[in-house]
Write a structure and sequence with these properties.
- It is a single chain.
- This protein is 52% helix and 13% strand.
- By secondary structure, it is α/β, with parallel strands linked by helices.
- The model has no long low-confidence stretch (mean pLDDT 85).
Length: 219
């Protein structure tokens, strides 16, 4: 089955351009669009897309509030939200990741990055490109007064904490396996236990927690 996508952006040209690009892929189907967050929430509930491309700045209801509403519905199967943003709204992106958005993409990213992002998010993974995500999260965390205590981290084994640190650095399961000299399946087991113990939705939330708690420090 193709990956179904809904595009939410207040600029018609952006919706049409992204829509045409994604519709040209054999494994992706654009099933709807929305000019603001309110319509995005309504259309998501009606169409149940696999992925929602959500612009942060929109009228009536912004992308952050729309993402919060969509993710709070806990749809089954889950709807993945991929935020579209620019560098001047880092705090909103950080908040979106905390809410459970699966990642974000710069609106001026190359076409191939958009297609890859949709596929990655649809698979249930977070879009955590080290060159962008770590920079934004680190910048925002650096501006916060102090780390937030995370008692749940005490439930992790030393190896699980190590895996969480590597996730926060943007490493994939394959890269973590290579770094720790273990099988990739072993890493998947550790990741699953980390998510369960910390009640995390995905890798994006894991990165946020790691930075907020001070487990991983900016830079």
């Amino acid at each position: 089955m193709p990956i179904t996508v809904l595009i939410a952006d207040d600029q018609a040209m952006v919706r049409q351009g992204f829509g045409a690009l994604l519709a040209a892929q054999s494994d992706i189907s654009v099933i709807g669009d929305a000019p603001n967050g309110k319509v995005a929430v309504e259309e998501t509930a009606r169409l149940r897309p696999d992925v929602v491309l959500m612009d942060v700045r929109m009228p009536e209801m912004n992308g952050l509030d729309a993402a919060r509403t969509i993710l709070a519905a806990h749809a089954d199967p889950p709807v993945r939200v991929l935020m579209l943003t620019t560098f001047d709204i880092d705090d909103y992106v950080y908040e979106a990741l905390s809410l459970g958005a699966s990642g974000f993409l710069l609106k001026d990213a190359p076409a191939e990055e958009l297609v890859r992002a949709v596929r990655v998010v649809a698979e249930g993974q977070a879009l955590l490109a080290p060159t962008v995500t770590r920079r934004l999260i680190a910048d925002v965390t650096r501006r916060r007064a102090r780390p937030k205590p995370a008692p749940a981290l005490d439930a992790l084994t030393p190896r699980e904490r190590e895996v969480l640190e590597l996730i926060a650095k943007g490493m994939s399961n394959t890269e973590i396996a290579e770094a720790l000299f273990v099988a990739e399946q072993t890493v998947k087991t550790h990741v699953s236990k980390v998510f369960s113990k910390l009640e995390l939705r995905d890798r994006a939330q894991a990165v946020v927690l790691a930075y907020e708690s001070g487990l991983v420090t900016p830079g």
